[in-house]
Amino acid sequence: MLRSITRSSSLGSTSLFFRFFRQFPRSYISRSSSATAGGNIRRVSTPEAAGRQLFLRRGLRFPSAASGSLNGQFSRLSLRAFATQPAPSYTELGQDEAEKLGFEKAREEFISECKSKAVLFRHKKTGCEVMSVSNDDENKVFGVVFRTPPKDSTGIPHILEHSVLCGSRKYPLKEPFVELLKGSLHTFLNAFTYPDRTCYPVASTNTKDFYNLVDVYLDAVFFPKCVDDVHTFQQEGWHYELNDPSEDISYKGVVFNEMKGVYSQPDNILGRITQQALCPENTYGVDSGGDPKDIPKLTFKEFKDFHRQYYHPSNARIWFYGDDDPVHRLRVLSEYLDMFDASQARESSKVIPQKLFSVPRRIVEKYPAGGDGDLKKKHMVCLNWLLSDKPLDLQTQLALGFLDHLMLGTPASPLRKIILESGLGEALVNSGVEDELLQPQFSVGLKGVSDDDVQKVEELIMNTLRKLADEGFDTDAVEASMNTIEFSLRENNTGSFPRGLSLMLQSIAKWIYDMDPFEPLKYEEPLKSLKARIAEEGSKAVFSPLIEEFILNNPHCVTIELQPDPEKASQEEVEEKNILEKVKASMTEEDLAELARATEELGLKQETPDPPEALKYVPNLNLSDISKEPTYVPTEVGDINGVKVLRHDLFTNDILYGEVVFDMGSIKPELLPLLPLFCQSLLEMGTQDLTFVQLNQLIGRKTGGISVYPFTSSVWGKNDPCSKIIVRGKSMVGRAEDLFNLMNCVLQEVRFTDQQRFKQFVSQSRAKMENRLRGSGQGIAAARMDAMLNVAGWMSEQMGGLSYLEFLQTLEQKVDQDWEGISSSLEEIRRSLLSRNGCIVNMTADGKSLTSTEKFVGKFLDLLPENPSGGLVTSVARLPLRNEAIVIPTQVNYVGKAGNIYSSGYQLDGSSYVISKHISNTWLWDRVRVSGGAYGGFCDFDSHSGVFSFLSYRDPNLLKTLEIYDGTGDFLRGLDVDEDTLTKAIIGTIGDVDSYQLPDAKGYSSLLRHLLNVTDEERQTRRGEILSTSLKDFKEFAEAVDSVKDKGVAVAVASQEDIDAGNKERSNFFEVKKAL
Ligand SMILES: [Zn+2]
């Protein structure tokens, strides 16, 4: 679902070390994270996770933990993995044993960077390679990866990635993948399609669960049902849909609609054009995800052939990681691999390098834009280089990664800063080094550019690069980048990604090209020698030649200009319609009758549930495998100088994590939309003595990062919302004094005087919000509904929803007209906020470190003003309750409906988590995704506020989806779940509740629970209720869900055409609001 042109998300910091922090690789993945537990706005509202994380994105300087735009489902890593004993507790895996199982040991190494023993095996009969990595990380990871280079843009690899998870030889049900989603304790479960490979990873901390997942995945990739069943191909790929011969034919298919969504986002369009333009002659010249125009050209035969050719052990690389028995790994694999003979796939799947151009090229294309606003200022320009005709050695790659961070990694980095300060555009796009494919590339781009400035942008970029090559970087900047990189390595904080998966993705980025899989895991030596070179020769001698060779003197450069075209979206719809009309015209009456019959047959099949005996094939855990107790985070509540302090004594490898929380309650409601910009200003404006560049470098040199962001949530049983500003920082324990000094400096000394920088923040934020509206419209719709239903939701929407975007759209002008006024509003926010009263400090580290840092915390607190908690401005604001349709230029919609079920009398019970998960994974998955053709459909229950919402993602439908939502009550009433299904739903819910967390995340979740009054007693109660959920609870919940049907409100983010049609059909059901 989620195409991630990764560079845009991580601000250019994508190479080697920063790859750890990516939320997603550059790939299409099998299901929307928002469809499960991720999603920007999706609150993980179990009593465990508590609270919404809408603004965590702000903390870009936390590469991992806080970059959580897609947080949630991937959130668990071994606490012990970093600090642990190297030796696995199992007996050594001897050559003999491997031999007996059909493998030969190719190489073995102890890798100190990840404290693991890694062994590379070769399966003798097929040549399949296996990396078996052993350590004592309980978060075990398995992955199988095939090289799958496409020859055209019909999306075969992507459709196959979806389809193999739809039933297999041993697991002959509709979607074993979904059964695993429902009922396993997985800490990771998904699949990715890259431009040249397809990856199937799973992770779990429970060994029995882990091997269940492994077996389902192995059977799926080698023996999928989809190669014999055209229905899966039609459902996941594409088919003609015709319900009645008198109606129009339409295209349906999950991937088809997923890609329509991707092709509606300008940033994605630019990323795709870039890749294809840089490599026109090899497999990267086509789109592995599928171009919606080409997907309908794909035949079932081509699809089957592709599987036969590439999904073969000879073309597979398999990864195991964790504390499980290495012999057992080979035993499981040999059962599968022995069934195959060697094939030629490894040869035929080789990626041919793109030869370097001798002269630069230039490409001008159009993208679909909305009709409103100044289109002149909506151009995008991007300069791109293919850096080499072959893969680079690790040393060079590391140096390039470092250079990337120096040039673009932080707001103070010169290339980023100069481009943004030029005022020539709104925000960077697709910028940074990309080294996950065969040949590395580098791009810098700007969006929101006026058409007469395109040339100037190109010149500015080239001149700045020239200047950096000539003058080098200043020492403080180099030191700051070095510290940031070393800190990240030491912390090894992969955030919500299992550590073993992050290592697998790094290793595979070389291994997939038949290079050394061990090398990418070993960074210490090359880093040491790079540092030594910088110390001896100076940074200029290291970095200038790289800029010269790879960029300035490199003729393989493609400049891409994207122009906005308000007609393009509707043009494409017309083209599609014409094609479909021709198809229909070419059909005889019999053909049409046959098509209608086939449509009905497919629909019927999709809606028929698997028989209970088929479901039994998927291995399950029992309730006895589940702990009756919730996981507790050690928390000691005390105070320092009269301020409440929470301490979490956890092993953190000498890193201190600290949060300082201020109450937002006395900030005037009309100032709320300024808050995100206030937070950004604190970190990016500078003080009397320090420019923002110096301040930024200081933070980079002394700490692991500081971020500031608002947090709001309803609180269960209370009328007033919880609304806070959280300042979050981390450093080595020895630098705790610096950390708190810098936090103080940021909060108290930063001056709001830089009008030009503030203007940049406004345009960047606007660009970001516009991107969000197009790419994650479900989040905007959810925020909008929340804002109608409760105060916390209203506050959030002011700071991150459509209201915020509208505010930003008018703010730019205000900055010119009344900067004084804005600047003093920012000061007013600071005055209302900064106070020792109501302040809370949260600290996570080992006990000794916590004690040793107390004095610095005390000093920090003493410096805070003693404002008596100002007159609390409790706002009762909400948006008017009404059904809304927000118009954007898009080919697919986002449809939401929500209501507060507490106001209908529903009493919170733990079973609600089980039931909403079940609704998402069955009713909504089957109707909205499988038969509706949307990329995702899910529901969410925020237990703090009582808001129950339905949302869909990249949805071809509008009213039809609302009808499905309204049918949920009847679905529950008619439900008949057997014991197994119920157990599965309960276990799956516990899997969410017990999400695996790194120590910083444990300390942070504990803070949020404290803020939201979620006690350990309550967690125990809810857990008991979850574990004892019965069919009766499902039936009773139907009434609560019916109240959403009857009294709820609907918000859709959709295309003009679909909204018009909807309003025609249901007499102006929606109030229409134009957004882009
Ligand atoms: Zn997909």
UniProtKB/TrEMBL annotation:
Keyword field: Hydrolase, Metal-binding, Metalloprotease, Mitochondrion, Protease, Zinc
Peptidase M16C associated domain residues: 562-811
Cofactor dependency: Zn(2+)
Segment forming the signal sequence: none
Keyword field contains RNA-binding: no
Protein localization: Mitochondrion
InterPro entries (UniProt xref): Metalloenz_LuxS/M16, Pept_M16_N, Peptidase_M16_C, Peptidase_M16C_assoc, PreP_C
Molecular function as annotated in GO: metal ion binding; metalloendopeptidase activity
Record carries keyword 4Fe-4S: no
GO cellular component: chloroplast; mitochondrion
One GO-annotated biological process of the protein: protein processing
Family named by the database record: Belongs to the peptidase M16 family. PreP subfamily.
Protein name, UniProt field: Peptidase M16C associated domain-containing protein
Organism: Eutrema salsugineum (Saltwater cress)
